[in-house]
Write a structure and sequence with these properties.
The protein is of the alpha/beta class. It is built from 15 helices and 11 strands. The protein has helices at residues 14-20, 22-28, 56-64, 74-81, 90-94, 99-106, 110-122, 127-136, 142-151, 160-169, 182-192, 226-238, 250-253, 274-277, 287-293, and strands at residues 3-9, 34-39, 47-53, 85-88, 173-181, 199-202, 204-206, 212-215, 243-247, 263-267, 282-284. Strands 6-5-4-9-10-11 form a 6-stranded parallel sheet, with helices on both faces. Strands 1-3-2 form a 3-stranded antiparallel sheet, with helices on one face. The two termini are 23 Å apart.
């Protein structure tokens, strides 16, 4: 069965971005027939890439099925279809990139920061330690942040806007919960029609001259376990009977706990972290799968 992956890559970082796409790599290294189609649009900042894996299903089933399940149980489907609220991670889930890595790259420290990001998302170091270490590598100023937001607008994952519209149409509340920064997530929320009060994220702090001072340590997501605490807070305040967390990292998985998320759905459409996927209730490689399951 053929499967198509549609991706967006920055032309100056093509090889790095391609290596980061662990999901296609997982399939491609076992596939004899693959077709890459690249299209360069005039004046575009990013390359549109389509990967067609013509023999995906039979090739990936032997290796991939041992560590995650892409077929939900009836119980999981029932909870998904009747959830009162759905919380989304932002980086490498709602968006195609890791926000802090993109900002660091813009400021000239991309490689060093991305290595710390991988450590943070795998759960190998405390999140607050990784966040402080990454920011210390490039200390972005307010003017750099504003320039970044203007020149590199957010790139949404395929199908996320349609999924969120479907959820809102069924009166399911939608939240964005991120270890990233509020200043960078607000434009995403605005684009998706998610109210600002439904954003739980970190806040960069600047001085009177726009110099970088640090981040707000009072935010839920500024420390390890913060997403879980944010989800528990949301559920308690609103009295939701059922709530779901969707993301790609260990910090998202942590949100599935008593008083928190009932389900954790691992989204592997950008990065597939095998250790996280192995513990998920459901693994999806496309938001279209989640949209179709709502029918």
């Amino acid at each position: 069965m053929a499967r198509v992956f549609s991706l967006s890559m920055h032309p100056t970082r093509f090889s790095r971005d391609l290596r980061a796409l662990q999901v296609p790599q997982l399939f491609l290294k076992n596939l004899p027939e693959n077709l890459f189609r690249l299209s360069y649009g005039a004046g575009r900042s990013y390359i549109s890439v389509t990967i067609m894996a013509t023999t995906l299903q039979p090739q990936c089933s032997k290796s991939a099925s041992h560590f995650f399940s892409t077929k939900p149980s009836n119980e999981v489907l029932e909870i998904w279809r009747n959830a009162d609220a759905v919380c989304f991670d932002v980086d490498s889930t709602v968006c195609l990139h890791e926000g802090i890595d993109e900002l660091a790259d813009f400021c000239g420290a991309g490689k060093a920061v991305s290595e710390w990001t991988n450590k943070a998302m795998s759960g190998s170091v405390p999140f607050e330690e990784a966040l402080a270490a990454r920011l210390s590598l490039f200390s972005p100023s307010l003017s750099q942040l504003q320039d970044f937001l203007e020149k590199r607008p957010p790139r949404l994952s395929p199908g996320i806007a349609e999924l969120i519209n479907k959820l809102k149409a069924s009166n399911t509340d939608v939240y964005l919960i991120s270890g990233g920064f509020r200043q960078m997530i607000k434009p995403v929320a605005l684009q998706l029609g998610i109210p600002g009060e439904n954003i739980f994220a970190n806040q960069l702090v600047f001085g009177s001259s726009g110099e970088f001072l640090g981040f707000d340590i009072t935010e839920f997501t500024s420390r390890s376990g913060g997403k879980a605490v944010a989800v528990q807070h949301i559920r308690k305040v609103h009295g939701y009977k059922s709530l779901i967390m969707i993301g790609d990292g260990a910090t998202d998985l942590e949100a599935r706990m008593p008083g928190g998320a009932d389900l954790f759905i691992c989204y592997g459409g950008v990065l597939l972290r095998e250790a996280v996927a192995a513990k998920a209730d459901w693994v999806v490689l496309s938001f279209e799968d989640l949209s179709n399951a709502l029918k």
